[in-house]
Structure formats: structure tokens, C-alpha cells
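Please, structure for the following, as C-alpha cells.
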Amino acid sequence: MNTLNRGARAFNRVVKCRPARAILPQAANDNLVNPLKDSMLRAALKHFAQHGLGAAQNARMRAQEARFAGDHAAYRWWRDMCRSLDARMASALPDPEAAC
């Protein structure tokens, strides 16, 4: 018996002895679905497609315009959009509770 067959047989014995769940309990990318985050991600990707590398700056500008106009919901939306695109840039914007 050559070593290749011996290795294959040993592997088969190990795999047959262990249930699949014990080897891989949960997929690494099997996250819970959060529809709010999914919709924001879709909107951020669409915004990025329209504005390119300036998308985060555009979102920040729109957040500031909404804040000064007193539109609290729009401010939160654009701040979260900016956060999705560039977290560091969004950290310079005030918290929604402090701004509104």
C-alpha cells in the first residue's frame, strides 16, 4: 500500500467519525440580517456609484445642510450615510441628539 492511499484512508476515517457541525459550527459570514443596515448599505453603494470618491464628502455636506435647515431625520440619514462611506469623516459631525 502506498502512502497516498494510506493518507486518504486516514482522512476518511477522521471525517466519518466527526459530525459536520462539530467541524464547522457556523459559517463565518452567516450574520443576522438587519434590514436597516442592508438598506443603508444599498443606499451608500448607490451614492458612491453616483459621486465616486467624493461620495462621503457629499454626504457630509448634505448632513450639514439638513442640520442647519432643522431637518432632523435627513440629518441622521446623511450622517449615517457618511459613516457608511467614511467613519472618520462622520466622526467630525455632531451626534444626532446634540445636533437636534
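The chain has a mean pLDDT of 79. The first helix runs from residue 3 to 17.
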